[in-house]
Amino acid sequence: MANKKKPEIVEENFTENIVVQPMEDVMGDRYATYAKYVIQDRAIPDVRDGLKPVQRRIIFTMYRNNNVFKKPTRKCAHTVGAVMGTFHPHGDSSIYEALARMSQDWKVRYPLIDFQGNNGSIDGDAPAAYRYTESRLSELSNELVSDIDKQTVDMQLNFDDTEFEPTVLPARFPNLLANGTEGIAVAMATEIPPHNLKEIINAIVYRIGHKTATIEDLMQFVLGPDFPGGGIVYQSEGLKNIYRSGRGRIEIASRTAIVENDDLQQIIITEIPYKTQKIQLVFEIDKIIHAKVVDGLLEVRDESDWKGIRIVIDCKKDADCELLLRYLKNKTALVTSYSANMVAIVNGRPKTLNLLSYIDAYIAHQVEVITRKSRFDLDKYKARLHIVEGLIQASLNIKEVVEIIRKSKDKADSKVNLMNFYGFSNEQAEAIVTMPLYKLSHTDEVTLEKEKGQLIKDIATLEGILSDENKLNRVIIRDLKAIADKYGDDRRTSIEEKEKIVPIDKRKLIAKTDVMVALTRDGYVKRSTVKSFRSSGDNVLPGLKVGDVLVAAGLVCTTDYLICFTNQGNYICIPVHKITENKWKDEGVHLNAFSTLSPGEKVIKGLAITDFRNDIYLGVLTKKGQIKRMPLDGIETSKRSRPIRNMRLNEDDEVVSVQVLSGNSNILVLTSNGMASLFNENDLNIVTSKAGGVKSIFGLGDNDTVAFLSYEPNEKGKFIMFTNKGHYRLVDSNKLNLNNRLGKPQVLMPCFKSDVHKVICAFKIDTKADVLKTNLFLDNNEYFAFDLTDFSATDLGKYAKKNISIPAKTLVSDVFDINIEVVNDKTISHPTKTSRPVSQARDDDDDKDAHASVTSNNEEGKNEDNDGFVQISIFDDLD
After folding, report:
1. Residue 599 domain flag
2. Domain total for the chain?
3. 37 catalytic, yes or no?
4. Which position among 34, 37, 132, 799 bears the catalytic label?
5. In a shared domain, residues 54 and 88
6. Which of 3, 427, 693, 732 is most buried, taking the most CB atoms under 10 A from its CB?
7. Are residues 519 and 468 both part of a single domain?
8. How far apart are CA 384 and CA 380, in angstroms?
9. 3-class SS shares of the chain: helix, strand, coil, % to 5
10. Full-prediction pTM beyond 0.70?
11. Structural domain containing residue 315
12. Are residue 260 and residue 394 in the same domain, yes or no?
């Protein structure tokens, strides 16, 4: 075999181009480049998603690898390797440190990573090595990457041009202020404290709706930082400066309590300042004790566990613990200072942000995200609509289409023939030839028509969002409120005055404004401006779903509470200012946004409370005639995940009416067969909210009680009754006899046996008004307006006949008007003749044993939790 001739190596000539420059010029230029990189790509977060690049890359990598909330955790070594090899080639330690920090709930207000294993501690311990630990994205992190696959953000090539990574995440919640951040760059640093998610979202929502809102307006919602470990922030100018200028200094104090025991006193510390290492704080206190700087301190112990922080300081029995505590606050980290410096990257440049500028930047980001998402969906829906229209046309000509395809040579020829014969586009023809024949059946034709209709609606909605700024803003508000409802929680850090440590009443930060509220039987509630109500016309009904009826509506104040009573013996207390503001014609939001109602639970009464007075009482009546009396100040205002019980019910019974009592009111109980009993409220003992009731009327039998009214001792007036067959009756209360609770009732409405009427409701009327305007709800789900101008009382002996011109063969299901009862300082009260219960105990488990061991008729009012009273009557067993 002949030897091959080796190719000649051609050497290229290179010309060196060495530029000689002074060292100071080179260093200045290179250092400026380095500083720019550190500021933009390492240490300072982006204002839009609140993340540094390494955090963003971690979250995006975990999302891309499906390492999300609903999936099992994976080894952190896997995540660190994926991030470092694909997006962040800067060393594994910095990546793992950032990953672990996003899971540490003592540093991050809303953790973005679910961690399994040792992720460090508040004592300063480092996390375990990443080969031992596992992690995944938290549920909240899904909101950071939500809709990222819909081209909502710009993408860029990674360091080796092999993959695309996002320049920013969609961030459907305001992460920068919610979780805060810290970072040191070149010649600048950032220190942003964490905040309460609901407060920030409320401020954003307010800003969207008020283009001229000021920082002071927004500070009504954002009270201050809300640190993961709680604590107390002292009210100061520094706190206000954080939101006015982006820089401010505040003091954070531990939460403490003084406990007296038999032989000593104890100072209990349950919350410590943000960024304070617990073990270091204990060491500082222990050092003071051993140095015997002050007298009275005996020992300090760290009794913290998985439930929370608990540091116990033993003091002498005769020591002044208040003085000792003030000393420790001055000498240890029980009180620390925190300097905020809200710097973030805005449009590629670092900028110091005040509250308004941050919110505006975040809103602008969300506008872009929603716009791009809507465009993506719009293009997708239009493309699908084009295909669906082709499929519908093909299904209408199925025989011809099949014949064309059958006679064609191949798929490509089939497409060409279909396009030539019917004018299909290439996409439509492709969809037709690839679709199985059974998809062109009549059933699927109907399905396609429905899909077409839905696509047209969706396209119209998206086009509206893209063309109407208000609609786009409503989408942002809707999404933010949904996130606040799902992930928001109560404030952990309280804002208090330093001189006198008293928690701030949040209602004082709410603008005191008169508003209209409406509450419906199905549990929908809304708040509207008075202007919106007046612009809707006189006596106009609020927006109602089909089959729903109004329970309460009227003028209240934003600082009031709305108490919603349900037929299952529960109530929900809602601050009026927390009710979503809607137009008067809108349906509103469901009470499940505040507390979860049970299936079938209906609202039967709404009260507006300005002041929970201790001289006002509530009467509660059930369908089976049970009645109770409870103090108004027993109502709980704290938010609960479930409604709070206000009456224990017997089986197959439900609450039908709740009325305000003055302490000496006369109670009028009405039954479905037109019987009435008038007695004084002092015939009822005052019981707690957990108690049952006693019989309200004698001889109820198989009938139901439908309502009760309350009258002042000397009050006289008229009330109106409505029946299911369209009869109304005006009754003068002067004709009723005051009796004992179980005295013989009076007949208010006799009926013919051939035409039996059932009373469905009754309420007092104002005879001074020119006209009584009310609304009837019929059993065919229609509303019937009823105006009454003749206020002459009906003879009680007159038999009930239909006197309302409702449509034939319809019955009246309910009657309602625009009215709400408000309890304030003007509400009349009288000294009561009965004593209050021994203890007004709180029911921490309202639904525990709700269906077990209910009171019987001869033991009504007995409290299974030993409230200290038993309410019985010798008449309770009489029929």
Report:
1. yes
2. 5
3. no
4. 132
5. yes
6. 693
7. no
8. 6
9. 30, 25, 45
10. no
11. 255-333
12. no
